[in-house]
Amino acid sequence: MKTKFERILRSLNLKSTPKRIAMLEVLDDEQVYLSPEDIWLRLKKRFRTLGLPTVYRNLEGLFEGGVISRVIHPDRKLYYYLCRNEEHHHHFICMSCRRVEDVRFCAERELQEAVRSGIRGKVLSHILQINGLCHACLKKEGTVHVS
Amino acid sequence: MKTKFERILRSLNLKSTPKRIAMLEVLDDEQVYLSPEDIWLRLKKRFRTLGLPTVYRNLEGLFEGGVISRVIHPDRKLYYYLCRNEEHHHHFICMSCRRVEDVRFCAERELQEAVRSGIRGKVLSHILQINGLCHACLKKEGTVHVS
DNA sequence: TTTCAAATGAAAATTGTTTCTATTTATCTC
DNA sequence: GAGATAAATAGAAACAATTTTCATTTGAAA
Predict the structure, then answer these.
(1) For chain B, which residues make up each domain, given as ranges?
(2) What is the pLDDT of chain B when averaged over all its residues?
(3) Global ipTM
(4) Domain spanning A88-147 has what CATH number?
(5) Which residues in chain B have their CB less than 8 angstroms from residue A121's CB?
């Protein structure tokens, strides 16, 4: 009887270590973007010896495998923060509570077309990220602290 | 008789130092994205004592003032690279020659609309960046080296 | 010219990430 | 279930980009 995460790791040819599973749990539980350090802080109580390099390595592996995705912090310091595991789509990121909403705007195909027709070249990838304040945070104005 | 760059700096309440002017010249001349270090390397022949912190400080100031813009390197290491000075628009970035083309796709407004109608919250900013290979680099295939 | 805030250089500190190596662990095979 | 083996890990150290600090210099306003 394998858990969801064990099956995922298996399919990526990654071993099911307790730490990896715990990382996936954290990312799955909290639907906010988390930095490598955030994840490390959450897990080092449970795993006294967990090191940041391990967190980085595993995030890298999980990202390569397409199990998680990442977004770019729009502030000066552009470290990357991670979450989610669906197919390619875009993100609306709340700068206050860090919650990430998927953006499934129907203009996607038109955008692609427009972009492609205006560019003489090959598109390899694109980044679309919308930064703002979510509905909930807008209401409790004043407490907004963008980090 | 003030030069273009002197007028720009003046309008931002930044002093017209030779180094700032030279930085603007470099960015204006080369229509490719440049890292702080790139700019530093280009200028330290002319200014023996130019330090990287000065380059960082000035880039920051020029960016804040809206005189230059920046793009995000899509590789793992997301340092930022800079260029251009037009109004808000998007970029097609050649991963090989570093050239940046402006993308003025007409679906912009539709995108904005779509995004806004799908999101309950306030949009503060967005990043749209298309990474690929430009027409010229596509032709001389094989020499492509993404850095 | 004098004055003063802004800009700068140089060194050091900070921060985020990666590498290295010896040890441990998950999984495969019997 | 008990080895065998390659992958995963901890811990320390290295690394790279950026920022801070502070004493000195410089641009531009009076």
Answers:
(1) 1-85, 87-147
(2) 77
(3) 0.75
(4) 3.30.1490.190
(5) 92, 94, 101, 132-135, 137-138
